[in-house]
Amino acid sequence: MNSFTQQTPSATSSLRKIPFFNYPQLFLSDKERLQQVFEDVGTRGAYILQSDLKTFEDNLAKFCGVKYALGVADGTMAISLILMAAGLKQGDEVLFCSHTFIATASAIHFAGGTPVPVECGPDHMMDPGDIEHRITPKTRFILPTQLNGRCCDMEKIQAIATKHNLQIVEDSAQALGSYFKGQHAGTFGIGGTFSFYPAKTLGCFGDGGAVVTNDETLYKTMLALRDHGRGENGDIEMWGLNSRLDNLQAAFLNHKLQSFKEVVQRRREIASLYHAELSSIPQLHLPIAPDAQPNHYDAYQNYEIEAENRDQLKAYLAENGVGTLIQWGGKAVHQFKALGFKESLPFTEKMTSRGLLLPIHPFLSNEDVTYVCSVIKAFYEI
Ligand SMILES: Cc1ncc(COP(=O)(O)O)c(C=O)c1O
Questions:
Q1: What is the pLDDT of residues 230-278, one digit of tens each?
Q2: Are 145 and 119 in contact (CB under 8 A)?
Q3: I want to staple 125 with a disulfide (CB 3.0 to 4.6 A). Which of 152, 162, 328, 358 is the partner?
Q4: Do 237 and 231 meet the contact criterion of CB atoms below 8 Å apart?
Q5: What whole-number distance in Å separates Cα of residue 203 and Cα of residue 195?
Q6: In the prediction, which pLDDT does 2 show?
Q7: What is the edge-to-edge ordering of all strands in the sheet holding 355-358?
Q8: Pairing mode, if any, of strands 139-143 and 284-285?
Q9: CB of residue 193 inside a 6 A radius of ligand 1
Q10: How far apart are CA 167 and CA 191, in angstroms?
Q11: Is the pTM higher than 0.85?
Q12: 77 CA: nearest ligand 1 atom
């Protein structure tokens, strides 16, 4: 691009307003049914630890193909709870991919662990080739983030974990509905976590999260941890927290889970459209297209491109009505020097200077996507 001057995207397209995520539509697109859910829960006075939560947990466990799911306050607490339940001790090192939300590392920190950042690869996921040389006698967990609605190469990560006697916990906050070799995100290690933040693939109307596991002991420990340390008979069995998923949010999530597969399908259609329109632009590096890799079934929580002149492209899209987002404000976790990280991860740093999230959510029309692409093409004069 040799000029960043204002241009109309094409002679035929008129200016549209395409927000990065359409928060009002989360409610408005299904208003009547959601109001019924509220009315039902409110009429029963069922707010905390009630049957809707149990139903949601059972449905979520079934969806993921695991024995247990536990609704908790949010995706950050979900990570802390599974690490605490698994016996993380002060100073234990936890390897995580630096291209993730700060929540991943802060959850490790507040569970007593030391977060150790690892590089991402060209697919923006934890790079299995950068894990082994970071393992020390203090390392206990590998905690990959299943980022952007995609799973890491879990075969490679599992092989490393087995070789070094480490446990895997997955931050799958962004990955409900995504699979690796037919296995659902969050189910490859001792436990996996989800976030139901409104903009997530399955979003509620506030904060919400869950942990999934096949381990009964971990499950029972987390049941107590999330509810003030109370055991099944109400006795205090351990120090605990208040980290319960609200029953009302669980009721909304139960309702939304029924049509969740279609939501993922729509996200995949949008990703295909982006791929068809943008793959010939040499200044862009695109996410892997749906069905391009048989081992992966991606849910496209995000569509994260790398772009030459990223900041100018973002500004140009904004001028033309298109909302975009630079994930984590353009910094990987190890780049927050105030937190004491000393590592330099050149691949990740280059990536974070180029990464940009395009709008991808079920409220976008095909015409919206075509419009976004036409603006990008106009920017690069293609
Ligand atoms: C990768 C990742 N990890 C953890 C979280 C934390 O989830 P929550 O906001 O529900 O605490 C998020 C949410 O944005 C996330 O994207």
A1: 998 999 999 999 999 999 999 999 999 999 999 999 999 999 999 999 9
A2: no
A3: 152
A4: yes
A5: 8
A6: 34
A7: 284-285, 303-307, 355-358
A8: unpaired
A9: no
A10: 9
A11: yes
A12: 11
